[in-house]
Structure formats: C-alpha cells, structure tokens
Amino acid sequence: MTTTLPLFWHLSSASRRERIDASVKLIGTLEQFQVQFAKNTSSAIAGSEGDEDEVQKSGSDGLDALNAQDVSYSIRRLVRGLASPRESSRLGFAVALTELLSRIATVTCTQIATMIVEGTKSQGSMTGQEERDVLFARLFGLMAVTQSGLLVRAGVASGSIQASSLQGYDEVITELLALGEKKTWLRESAWWAVALALYAPSFKNPDILSTGNLHTIARILKESSTNDEEKDVRKAANGSWRPQLHFVWDMLLDQLLPGPNTPHTPTGNFQDFFQIVIDESLFSSTSSPERKYWGFQLANALYKNFMRSWINHLSHQDRYLHKIAMQTATELQAFIQQHPQLGFSLILQLTGVNGSQQFDKLTKTKTVETILTSMDETGIKSYIDYLLGQVNEPADSGTYDVQSINTRRAWIIDQLASLIRNGSIPKNDEWIQLILDWFVVHGLFTIQKKSSKSPYHALHSLPKPTFSDELRELCRSRLLGCLSNLSAQANAIKTDGKTVKASAVASDGEFWVSKVLNTIETLESDSKHVSLLAEPHKSDRKLHARAKKSASRLRGETEGPSKGAELLLLASILQQYCAEDQEDVTSETLENSDDDAVGEDSPEPVDVLVDSIIGFLEKSTAYMRTIGNQVFTLLSESVQASTIDLIVSRGRGGIRDDAEESSGDSDEDDAPSEGDSDNEDVDLELRAKIEEALKVNGMEVNSDSEEEEEELMDDEQMMAVDDQLAAVFRARANEKKTGNADVQREATHFKIRVLDLVDSFIKKQPSNPHVIRLIMPLIELVSETGPDEQQLSDKARGIIKTRIGKGKDVPTETDQVPALMTELHAKARKTHSPTLLPILSHCCVYLAKVMLHSRADDSLLQAYRESLVDFMTRKNSALNTGFFQDFMRRHQVAAWNLRGDVLRLSTQAVNVYRQCQAFQLLETLVATLPNLASVDPGEILEFMSTLRANLLEVLTSACRDKLALTTAQAKDLLKLALLAVRQTQRIISTVDPEAWTTLRKALESSERLKNSPALQKMCDQIVRSTQSENASQGSKKATKRKADKVAGSEEASPEAQKVKRKKVRKSKD
After folding, report:
1. How does residue 520 score in pLDDT terms, banded at 50, 70 and 90?
2. Window from 58-67, 269-278, 281-290 with minimum mean pLDDT
3. CA distance linking residue 719 with residue 714, whole number of Å
4. Angle at which helices 187-199 and 128-147 pack, to 10 degrees?
5. What are the residue ranges of helices labelled H in 316-401?
6. In DSSP terms, which residues pair with 531 in a beta bridge?
7. pLDDT tens column, 778-823
8. Rounded CA gap, 851 and 857, in Å?
9. How far apart are CA 146 and CA 98, in angstroms?
10. Nearest to 616 by CA among 565, 568, 582
11. Pairing state of beta strands 498-503 and 161-162?
12. Structure confidence by residue, pLDDT tens digits, 624-679
C-alpha cells in the first residue's frame, strides 16, 4: 500500500495537471500489480468454477478474489472518495475510477454498481451538505460505470460470470431515474447520465451526431450489426423490408439541416454525415439494392435545395459561387465517365422534380448532354423508356393541365431528337428505330385504338389528351431532322466480308428513310388502330407506287449512282408525307422515276437527278439539303459535262423565282391588271391605310363631291393629312425594300448550297476531267460578286484554296487546259485585286500540274514567259513576284527552264525596282537546285557564270552611280551572289575570287554605298568562301602529288620522310 497511498492525495488537487498526472501514475501502478497478481494466481483461477457465490465469499464485495490487494483497495478508496467534500476531489476520483474500470476486466457491472449504491446511502442524521455530497457521489459513480464501458462490456469477468448483464444495466438506469426524481436540481444531470447509458451500447460520444458516432449510426440505420454484415449483395430482401424511410432519418436531418424558421443551430458535420452514413454505407459496393433504394430516396430529399442553389450559381458567371458550381459539374461529368451505369439515375435527378428539364439551357452548360454521351446503350435505352413513359398522364389522374402536358411532350420530343442528333452518343439500331417509329405515329397518324401487341411503342396506349396540331408538326419536323442527322453520320456495315463506312444507312445496309417508309406502309394497312392525318391524292399514290417500284429495282445494286437514285426517290416520297403545304412539295423527282418517260431527246438521267437535287437545295429545310448533298455524293462518279454546266448555270441564276423577277414586277406600272389578285390585295391594303389616315382627321372618304371635301379641310388638317400619308407611303416603301432584301439573301444562300455540291464533287472526284470546267466559274464568283454576297465569294475562295490549290490528284487527260491556262494568265495580267491574284495563282499551279502530266510543257512555259514579259517590261503590270514564286516552288523542274528568260528580262526591266524583283525570282530558282538532281551540271555552270556577270555588272554600276540601288537592294543582290557561289561549289570547286575583291574595293569608294559596312562584310564573306574552297582543293591535290613522288625523291623534306616512314610502318602493320 505504501506505493499507492501517496498518489491519492494529489487526486484532490485544485490543479488539473496534477490530478491527471496522479491518475496516470495510479492507474499505471495498479495495472502492474494486477498483471503480477494474474501470473501468480492463474493456476488457481483456471481450476476454479468461478461462479458468483465463490466470488462473494472472498469478501463482502467480491473484489479480492480476482484482483490484487492494491487494486481492490483502490476501487473501494475511489468510490468512497467520490463523496469527499474537499475541493476538486470528486473530479479527480471520478476520472481515476472511470479509467481504472475501463482497464481491468476482473470486475462486473453489478459489483461496482452495488458498491456505489451501498456506499452512497443517505442517513437521517446527515446535514444538507453531507446529503448533497452523497447524492453527487452516486451520480459520479454511476457515470463512471457508464463511461468506462463496464455497463455494456462483452466478455466474462470470472468463470461463467458476465462482466455486464441486463440486471446490472437495469439497476444503473433505475438508480439514475430515482436520483433525478429525488432532487430537482439533479434532474438535468441525471437525465444526461441516462442518455449516456442509452448511448453506451454503441456510441463513443454523448453528442450523437459527432464524427466518432457516425459509423455506429450508419450500421444502425443500415439495419445491420457488426457481426451481421451482408455477405451476399444479390440476396433478395427479407419480408420485413419496407421501402419507406425510418422516421429517425427526419429527426437526424432536422438536427443537421434545420429549417429557416427553427430556433436551434445546426448540429454535427453534414459533409461527414453524408459521406459515412449515406455514401459509404447505403451506396457501398456491398450494399443491397434495397438499401440503395433508401439512398436514392434520401438523395431526393436532400437535393431539392441543393439543385436550386446549384442551378442558380451555374446560370451566371457573376454569381458568388459560380466557380465551385462549375467545378461540381465538371467532377460530376468525370465521375459518370468512370461509372456510366449511374448516368441514367443522375439524369433523372437533374431533369426531375428537384432539377429542371431545361437544365443545360438554364445553366448554360452541357452537363446533361455530356452525361448522355458517357452512358452505355443500356442507360440510353432506359432513358428513352423513361421519356416515353412521361408522355401520357397517369391513368388514375382525374384532371390534367393541357398546357403543362404539351410543354412536357415538346420537351420529350426534343430530348428524343437530341439523342440521334448528338454524334457522340453510342448509337443502336433498335432504339433509333424506336424513336423514328414514335415520330411517325404521332406526326403522321391518329391513334384510334391502342394495340398492346403492336411492335410500335406509340400504339401501346392512347394519348391522353390527344396530341395537338403543333406537337404533330413538331414530330414531323424532328423526324426529318433525325433522318438528316443520320444521313450525315457514317455507320460501319459489312459487305462481302469487308467492313466499310456508309452514311444514311443502318447496320444492315438499308437506308433509314426506307425503314421509315416501311413503317408508314405498315401503319397504313392497319386501319383498325391508326389513320393518316392527311390522305394522299390518288395521283400522289400512283407516283408513290411507281417511285417505290423503281427504288425496289435499285435496292439490289451496290454502285454509288444506283444507291443515290434510290435514296433520292425514297426521300422525295417521305417529303410528300411530311410536307405541311402541298405547294412546297416537288413531285418532279417522282414523275421522272418512270423509265417509260425517257426518250431520245430526254436529258441524261444523272442531269435529271441533279436537277432534282438542286430543287431540294432551294428548300429551307435541313433535311432536304442534307439528303441532296448525300445523293449528289453518291452520284458524283456519274457526273457528265452537261451536269457541270447545269450546276454552273443554276448557281449563277439563283432560285427559279429569284429576286430579279420580284424586282422586275415592282418596277411595272401601278395600274391593276386583270387576274392580278396580288396587286389587288396590295392596293386594298394601301387604300385601307390611307382611309384610316383620313378618318383620323375627321374626313369622309366616301364623299361624292370633291368640292365638299375641299370645303371641309383647312390648312392645319391638310398638313396633318400630309404627315400621315407620308408615314403610310414610307412604311410601304420599307416593306418593299425588306422583301427584296430577304429574296436576295435567300438567293445568296441557295448559291452557297450549290457551291456545297461543287465542293463535294471535287473532294470525291479529284481526278475527274470535269473538275477543269469548274475553275473559271469559281473565279468569276470570287471576282464578280458584290459586297452583299461576301459569304458566296468566301465560299468559292475556300474551295479554290483547299480543293484545287492543295489537291494531290489531278485529271490526266484534258484538251481544254492549255486554253484555260492562257485565259487565266491573261486575266492575271489585267486584274489589280490583291485578293484575286493569289486565287489565280493557285489555279495556274493546279493547271500546271495537269499539263505536266499531259506532257504539255511547252504550252505551260509559254504562258509563264508571256506573263514574265508583261511583268518585267510593263510598269502597270498587275502581276507580282508571288505569282511566279508559287509556280517555281511547286514545279521546280519545269520552272528551271525559265531561268534564261528571267535573267534576260532582268536587263530589260522597266526600272531598277522591277530588275531587283527579277533577281528575287532568280534567287528562288537557285535555292531549288539541291532538289534538281536531273539537271545537267553544265547547264548550271553556264547559268551561274552568266548570273555572276550580271550581278557584278549591276553592283558595279551602282557603285559608279549609274544605277540608283538602295542599300537593302544591294544587300539582297549580294545574298543571291553568296547563294550562287555555294551552289556552284557543289559542282566545281574552283571559283575566281578576284572579281569579288574588286567589287569590295568599289564598295569602299562608292559615295552611295560606302557607309554600309554590311555590304563590305558580305563581299568579304563571298571572297573567303571562294578562297577557303580553293585552298582546300589545292591542299588535297598537293598532298596527292607528294604521295606519288615521295618514294623516288631523294630531296624529300624531313616532314615528307616522316610521312613516308609512317606510311611504311602502317603498311607493314
């Protein structure tokens, strides 16, 4: 006892540090005594039965049987010390008792609770202070039992005696309740102790929402114990599972997220709660579908405010939390890319009740669109089923809001169309066909009776309410739009064991338009369940039948033109079904589908088809434009010269009823003509406005006497009438101008669409000879279009630059190229447009490639020679060096033949500036010499000699002030000279530097050029280059001669003998 007694004194210290130090020392010492005691008595305890009676025999409280003497004494001393009146003693003794009970496993809850109750009994002779001390001692003692974990400790204290039991737990709770009822000032503390006792089975902290308790809360709310975790995640839920959330969730969420009108502040950390209790528990990888269902319900409950705030902060960049909101959207998209199976559930949240159907539009992001692209085919199919399930109101709903239903249906239609429009979404023929069939049923038919066995989903239920005319029109528009998008998307199909990519077709090779027409034909035969909204005329049905017959004959063909004709016929039929106004329908294609209509004088079949395609381009719908371009791509290999002429003529003329006719009509007399109802309508409208202006001023319009009218009007009324009539006529004039502008704009757009055909043809058939026929019309578009048609000019310029200027494949045989080349050069010499000349240069380079393939070198060089003469000898020539340099860089071998012409014309230049430009062209030619391996070296040396003489003559004349060369021009000439010297040394090693040395001296003495040391340095560089090359060549020759003579020479120098001895030794080795 002498080792522990001193430690009890400091437990009552007023210093918290001393109390804790004393508790640590006391508990550490007692643990050592207990370990030593357990070793000495292990054999005796192992042979004992260890029942409760034997333990009680060891002492009144049974502590001495299983504990060391110091431990038993310390427990009794600590319990008695709880009632000590000394300051802070109760705190120190309570802490030490709690820690000691938590460390030793040889006591029971019943033992300690009985000891505390017996040691803290109240007696009648006690004063008020003594009674308070005893009551507080009992409270602190029972709290020590609870906080030490002894109240619910699992395990055996001795033999078969459990450390804790229901009896002991009940005793503690009963005593605490009695303690709270006994004194009102103890009630709050006693109830708090009861709460600790209730939380004691699982919780580590009295604050139930503290982070340390969250794992326990998660296990409880998951309705699983520590030893009963789910081992089979696919096991079906038992019969006791209910989909409704437990009411305790509402209580916890109220504490974590109190409402705006609640008085208390938030408790706990919601982020930790959501992560541990919901995300890592209900949504864990081992969680069952039933528990995940609970998780989704919680997400719905929590996301209402979150979604509202998220959408608000995403919608505008000036929002305070816009950056973190954008980061959330980005991380969400990345998460779905890693887990595409969760995309459908997230889409439902974003577009559901808590979100918004217009989520992407409101937030100005592509969150929903990106998630859709990350989803797999199963998720896309689930989303489509979800959308189709929202079309009708539930059967049990008595009343419904027609406007809200139509709005929802319009959104569903747009969503279905976007799935096909987005090329990044993984496509599947099954759900694409489902969407197209749905559009067909609701856009072209009226459902009379539902058919649950029908292969078409739209017939499985009657729409309630029925689709409005606006929604049916929207379905037809989206149907054509989807077919347009599918026509532009390539799909991999297998033909003859090979996989090829084709557009506008399904995986089986059939056109999507054909599949849609098959659906329409099947529905037309099912008059029991559906009926067409607008029955076609008998003549139209005959046209349809004839066109389908022609298309069926073409279906077996695999050639591009046959497939193009089939697609054109089918698309024309569908267009007639979907056209809102029969005036917009072009039946010319269907009428020309009859083979019997072809005669001797009939145009080429491809011309007829292309004319129909151009008719498609006149329409403003994307469907007809896309189909037209797709058909033309398939027909491009069958294009004839007459076809090109047709395209050019239509591109120049514009729309059939273009602005010229409109403007021509407007210039005619205002006198009405018979049968001209339009003019009558215009006159009536204008007359009505004039009459209204007169009535405003109190004038009778239908008066028979003009004199009476004059008497009724005074000067003020006349002025007012003049102002109002002037306003009427100004408004009328503005309407005419606006109408003409719209017609002109539409004509320009039509011409651009025709240019799309030209672009497609050159892209698909670059080696077709008919490409040559398109060059001059394209140049005319670039040069002759006005500022109102700038887009048309830019389109033509882009085709020339990308398709013609950079084309790799060219036609091989054509007779019209030389004449066209001459015409282009003549046009280039006359044009003064800095934007047109590069276009002409691209075309000339392209034609040069064609002529070189056709062995027409002489005609090609003659055209460039004539242009060179014009450029060098005419001061106002529109040509520039870039026009010739393009040819020299692209066709270096052919351009080398112009070297003499350029050098000769440099002496005939109209001025010094043009002469220097000639030397720039010569520099371009000299720079290409390393690539000209086929050129005779003799030709090169002869040319270099002449070039050097000309350069020296020009530079010398400049030094003598005979030519007014600037310093920059002289420097360019010296650069050319240095380049020529280096190119010459590749062929011949000896170059005479004397002439350049003389020029160096002339530059020093020149009044005009002596102030430029750069020119003198360049001359020195040329001289050094020639001298170093000559020296190196001379050294090589001298070494060779010495090696030949060293064996027979007796007067050889020591150095030569040394070289000889080295060579002999090397040869011997």
Report:
1. very high
2. 58-67
3. 9
4. 10
5. 322-338, 343-351, 359-363, 367-374, 377-389
6. 446
7. 999 998 888 888 888 999 999 999 999 888 888 877 788 999 999 9
8. 7
9. 8
10. 568
11. unpaired
12. 888 888 999 888 889 998 999 999 888 776 554 444 444 444 444 444 444 444 44
For position 681, what pLDDT does the model report? Answer: 44
More confident call, 287 vs 661: 287
Helix or strand or coil: residue 319?
coil
> How many angstroms separate the CA atoms of 541 and 133, rounded?
107
CB atoms inside a 10 Å sphere around CB 34? 19
The radius of gyration of the chain from alpha carbons, rounded to an integer in Å, stands at 51
Structure tokens at 167: 């009896």
Q: In whole angstroms, what is the distance from residue 293 CA to residue 954 CA?
A: 93
Q: How far apart are CA 857 and CA 863, in angstroms?
A: 10
CA terminus-to-terminus distance, the chain: 103
Separation between Cα atoms, residue 504 and residue 567, nearest integer Å: 9
Collapsing DSSP to helix, strand or coil, 158 comes out as strand
Distances (CA, A) of 773 to 598, 642, 674, 769: 27, 10, 46, 8
pLDDT given for residue 549 in this prediction: 81
Tokens of 183: 């004194």
Amino acid (one-letter) located at 400: Y
Count of CB atoms within 10 A of residue 925's CB?
A: 23
Nearest to 68 by CA among 39, 101, 97: 39
Residue 586 has a pLDDT of 54
How far apart are the C-alpha atoms of 776 and 321, rounded to whole Å? 59
Quick check: bond before 465 cis, omega within 30? yes
CA distances from 886 to 843, 849, 881, 882, 921 (A): 11, 12, 9, 6, 10
CA angle 930, 934, 935 (to 5 degrees): 75
Give the span between the Cα atoms of 707 and 664, in whole angstroms.
39
- Residue 511: phi and psi, rounded to 5, are -65, 140
* HSE (side-chain half, CA atoms, 13 Å) at 1064: 8
> Any idea how long the chain is?
1069
Q: Residues 696, 701, 704, CA angle at the centre, nearest 5°? A: 150
Which percentage of the chain shows pLDDT scores above 70?
78
3-state secondary structure of 60: coil
| Per-residue pLDDT reduced to its tens digit, 102-132 | 888 888 888 888 888 888 888 878 888 888 8
Buried b (16+ CB within 10 A) or exposed e, 852-863: eebebeeebbeb
CA angle 751, 631, 628 (to 5 degrees): 35
Phi, psi of 499 (to 5 degrees): -100, 120
Tokens standing for residue 851: 């002529």
Written as six digits, the tokens of 278 are 């919901």
Q: Quick one: tokens of 565?
A: 């004709």
Q: Which of 165, 142, 158 is nearest to 57 (CA)?
A: 158
Give the residue carrying structure tokens 């050097």: 948
Cβ–Cβ < 8 Å for 310, 323: no
Cα angle, residue 452 at apex, residues 450 and 456 outer, rounded to 5°: 85
From CA 14, how far away is CA 527, in angstroms rounded?
Answer: 99
